[in-house]
Design brief:
The structure holds two protein chains of two kinds.
Chain A lengths: L4 E6 L5 H7 L4 H5 L3 E4 L9 H4 L8 E5 L8 E2 L2 E2 H11 L2 E5 L1 H5 L1 H4 L11 E2 L2 E2 L1 H6 L3 E4 L6 H12 L13 H4 L10 H5 L65 E2 L2 E2 L8 H12 L4 H4 L8
Parallel strand pairs in A: 1-2, 1-3, 3-6, 6-9
Antiparallel strand pairs in A: 4-5, 7-8, 10-11
Helix pairs in contact in A: 1-8
Chain B lengths: L1 E6 L6 E8 L2 E8 L6 H5 L7 H4 L8 H18 L8 H34 L8 H20 L8 E2 L2 E2 L5 H23 L3 H6 L11 H13 L11 E3 L9 E4 L2 E3 L6 E4 L8 E4 L8 H7 L3 H10 L3 H25 L18 E9 L2 E10 L2 E8 L1 H5 L10 H6 L5 H10 L4 H5 L1
Helix pairs in contact in B: 4-5, 4-8, 4-11, 4-14, 5-6, 6-8, 6-11, 8-11, 10-11
Classes of the chains: A alpha/beta, B alpha+beta.
């Protein structure tokens, strides 16, 4: 069987998605299922000057970075026209990262002209209609290496990936970042952390954690096979969401002491009832340090 | 005669215009195409948002941007009289994760750029997949980083007063084991001698002892005459007080102190990158500069014989990997987990301040400046290492890398010299 041809193109980006994926421990066995036409870090069959002539065949197109119709040139050629040709040829288009999917950080530099490939934050761009049958969205700033490898291997093995209404694989984005967080007990009993630098306490109430309303499996499939933001006490900044980045990221936005954004799908009344009961108990274990070093 | 060349896979692309005289390269103009406007994006945001936004300048040195931006805020807090004292633990954890990122950078540059490009240049290509080695060590060492910082790329775990993590000895042991794995890789694959032995070298006569892939590169450089090429101004500067580095500037005869107020940025015609000078003079930054200013014996010995050539530049960077791996092991050993991770608990954060944060990133000194009024950023400036090394000069003097390329006999030779500086297109144009 002939291997599918894989083309990785970059637009307005920091290269973080390419570097994130480069750290995948099985990088080369995953790529061995494909004929790699072009990649921003690896030595490939073609050089960029050949790619931008748009003569190559392409089965799987990976897009990294946000888009603008005019003014983003590669080797003197308008990149949007190059992308358009390969998008038509490809059987699958993967938008790798939040920039390529929704616009991301760089959109803020020129909100009118910079967008994601098929979405402008949540709005559909004109490309949405042209390519919706081929799209797979993998938002995240950066992309999680294991999420991309899952999609690539499913495609290589010609298996169906179940997507949601924004073309995100449900297996990866059907849960929230909160799922599997090592601080879950503190969330359940509404015990907030006493500040940064502690393994105890939940970051949702004051430190700005968006884990409960952010789609992604960061705490199920750990980062660098090791950890995640919330495990190390950093709030989740909602980097997989269409409106990333919001502002005042290290503070929870509250109204009368109640977080403005509810956990995903949870009605405010249900949240208030549950937390009202939870916080009426004082549970000794959750007030103490987990490890008590001598001295 | 003029020749244009698109240099790709340098964290984006760079366009070089070469002009030849008597069959040798006489001058080069370097152009970087796209400006993303990170500094403008930060305007109007609360100061700590910079800890999340600035790592997105660069996918390969994001962590250095995080550390520079947290230092800028801490400097600003201090400047208005707030006490920000980090514990040794917090300081050492930051140093450790920064060291991991530098190691990750160095190994990628060596295996994705230097070794394959040199083999290509000299028509000595083999079947070996060098990228596999880069990926192996990069994923090993960034895993150690992520144990403390949560993830790589794009962690935001350094906050004013310390770090957000609260590691256990289980974490420290896992990180130590990953560092040990990196030492094994460095010794057996990269340099062919024990890490302590390479760090103890102090004479050109020691060079033949080096084996591994560095040994291979040194042989190729020596046998092709490339070893002597790529010389530039022979002036170095280091601003970042961190890791095992010393700050200062050096000209061939002496090392002296520096002040960031003399750093000046200027726009360049036809390029989105700004050039930067110190007292109107150009300086090289990066591993070679750090080795020269810290007076590392082996770097000094090579410099004495080869000056600031490709050989000294490449050696200094691989040698620095050894320094950093061994330093990171010491850091983990001395961590006292009973100390606080973050000492800054004040709810009343200052609303108006100006701060400067400086750090040594893989490619050299990185400077962040933040100005905050009424609790929001009004101005943010980022000066990156590659602006020093890859500028087109200031009219009076040629740029550092352009001068190094001068005299090369082909575009291919010059492109290799250019890459010894480790080009980072996305940083250069932010």
């Amino acid at each position: 069987m002939k291997k599918p041809k894989l083309l990785w193109l970059q637009s307005i980006t920091c290269n973080g998605n390419a570097h994130s994926f480069f750290n995948h421990p099985e990088l080369f066995s995953i790529l061995s299922h494909f004929e790699l036409l072009y990649h921003p870090l690896l030595d490939t069959e073609y050089i960029l000057e050949e790619v931008i002539k748009t003569q190559l065949a392409c089965d799987v197109l990976i897009l990294e970075g946000s888009f603008r119709e005019k003014g983003m040139l590669k080797g003197g050629v308008e990149l949007s026209t190059v992308v358009e040709v390969y998008a038509q040829k490809a059987k699958h288009i993967i938008t790798a990262g939040t920039c390529a999917t929704f616009g991301g950080v760089f959109k803020e530099a020129d909100p009118k002209n910079i967008t994601g490939f098929a979405f402008d934050i949540k709005e559909k761009t004109k490309r949405h209609e042209l390519y919706f049958s081929k799209l797979i969205s993998l938002p995240g700033c950066p992309i999680h290496p294991k999420w991309l490898s899952f999609v690539l291997l499913m495609l290589a093995k010609e298996k169906d990936i179940v997507l949601d209404d924004m073309f995100r694989p449900q297996e990866l984005y059907g849960i929230t970042v909160h799922t599997g967080c090592s601080r879950n007990e503190y969330f359940e009993w509404k015990v907030d952390t006493k500040g940064f630098g502690l393994k105890e306490g939940c970051l949702f109430y004051e430190q700005g954690c968006q884990g409960p309303h952010t789609r992604g499996s960061c705490n199920k499939i750990l980062w660098n096979d090791a950890s995640s933001k919330t495990i190390v006490g950093t709030p989740c900044f909602g980097c997989t969401e269409p409106d990333f980045p919001k502002t005042a990221l290290y503070m929870t936005q509250t109204n009368m002491g109640i977080p403005t954004t509810m956990p995903l799908g949870v009605p405010k009344r249900a949240y208030l009832t549950a937390t009202g009961i939870a916080k009426s108990f004082k549970i000794k274990r959750f007030e103490e340090r987990i490890i008590k070093y001598d001295g | 005669m003029m020749v244009k060349k698109l240099i790709e896979k340098v964290e984006g692309e760079a366009e070089l215009d070469f002009s030849f005289k008597n069959n040798k390269i006489d001058d080069v103009t370097i152009k970087f195409g796209f400006y993303r406007g990170i500094e403008n994006i930060l305007t109007g945001k609360p100061p700590r948002d910079a800890l999340v936004i600035t790592p997105r300048v660069c996918g390969i040195c994001n962590h250095a941007h995080l550390i520079a931006s947290v230092r800028a805020i801490e400097d600003g807090y201090r400047s208005v009289g707030m006490k920000v004292n980090l514990t040794n633990k917090a300081n050492d954890i930051r140093e450790f994760t920064l060291a991991c990122e530098l190691i990750q950078n160095h190994v990628k540059w060596f295996y994705l750029i230097i070794l394959p490009q040199l083999e290509k240049l000299l028509d000595q290509q083999g079947e070996e997949n060098h990228a596999l080695k880069a990926s192996y060590l990069s994923s090993t060492i960034t895993k150690a980083l992520a144990i403390f910082a949560g993830q790589w790329p794009h962690s935001s775990y350094a906050v004013p007063g310390g770090v957000t993590c609260d590691p256990t000895y289980v974490d420290v042991m896992q990180a130590e084991s990953l560092v040990d794995e990196s030492i094994k890789f460095f010794e057996q694959i990269m340099v062919g001698v024990k890490i302590d032995d390479i760090l103890a070298m102090d004479s050109v006569l020691d060079l033949p002892k080096i084996g591994g892939d560095l040994g291979k590169v040194l042989l190729l450089l020596g046998s092709s005459g490339m070893a002597e090429m790529g010389k530039s101004h022979d002036r170095f500067i280091v601003f970042g007080e961190c890791l095992c580095f010393k700050i200062g500037k050096s000209i061939p005869t002496q090392v002296s102190t520096i002040d960031t107020n003399y750093v000046k940025e200027e726009r360049q015609k036809g390029s989105m990158a700004k050039s930067v000078t110190y007292k109107n003079r150009l300086f090289e930054v990066g591993s070679l500069a750090r080795g020269m200013i810290a007076k590392e014996p082996m770097v000094k010995a090579l410099h004495k014989r080869y000056k600031d050539s490709t050989l000294t530049r490449i050696f200094a960077r691989v040698y620095e990997m050894g320094l950093l791996i061994s330093y990171s092991k010491q850091l983990l050993k001395r961590l006292n987990l009973q100390e606080e991770s973050c000492t800054f608990k004040a709810n009343n954060r200052p609303m108006d301040f100006e701060g400067v944060g400086v750090v040594e990133a893989a490619r050299g000194s990185l400077i962040h400046k933040t100005t905050v009024k009424d609790g929001l950023i009004t101005n943010y400036e980022i000066i990156v290492p590659t602006q020093w090394n890859l500028s087109n000069g200031n009219g009076e003097e040629q740029g550092v890398s352009t001068k190094a390329m001068r005299g090369a006999t082909s575009v291919e030779e010059a492109s290799f010299i250019f890459r010894t500086f480790d080009v980072c297109s996305v940083c250069t144009t932010q």
